[in-house]
Write a structure and sequence with these properties.
With 149 residues, this protein is mainly alpha-helical. The protein has helices at 2-22, 32-58, 61-111; strands at 129-135, 141-148. Helix 2 packs antiparallel against helix 3 (61-111). The protein is rod-shaped and about 135 Å long. The relative contact order is 0.09.
Length: 149
């Protein structure tokens, strides 16, 4: 009976620590292999605790703990691997997005270079003039006028 009480107490402790583990953020600086190991350990402990609690109702707490521990370890490993994969994909997406933003910014800077406005000083401005000539019947110039456009 003491063994059953110990198993039940362990199951309760693990059940309360499971949500705290799941609520952790991904700010850890550990790599994906240690995350997988942590997921397997926490999943195994949680599964063993729950398996012992369920098995104690039928009088087979040890069997329930063993089955629950194995299933929980596999589940924890799979969840940790999935989480690591999603984090890696999110980081790659963010990197591609930042690169695209940088390229668009560079393109816009090249396309929209400011052009110096022409100055209104008389030295820079050339006025086009037209010359009107009048000829006599033999082709000689009689008069000549300059007209501005």
């Amino acid at each position: 009976m003491k063994f059953m009480s110990l198993i039940l107490a362990l199951a309760i402790c693990v059940s309360f620590s499971g949500p705290a583990y799941c609520a952790r953020t991904s700010d850890d600086s550990s790599d994906s292999s240690s995350n997988g190991l942590g997921g397997a350990l926490m999943g195994g402990l949680l599964g063993a605790g729950l398996g012992a609690a369920v098995g104690s109702a039928s009088g087979h707490a040890g069997t329930g703990a063993a089955i629950g521990g194995g299933v929980g370890a596999i589940g924890g490993t799979l969840l940790a691997a999935d989480k690591a994969k999603k984090e890696k994909e999110a980081a790659q997406y963010e990197e591609r997005y930042q690169e695209q933003q940088y390229r668009e910014q560079q393109y816009q800077q090249q396309q929209y270079q400011p052009v110096a406005a022409p100055s209104n000083s008389g030295a820079d401005m050339k006025v086009k003039k037209r010359v009107i000539k009048q000829y006599d019947s033999e082709g000689n110039v009689i008069s000549q006028k300059e007209v501005a456009n």
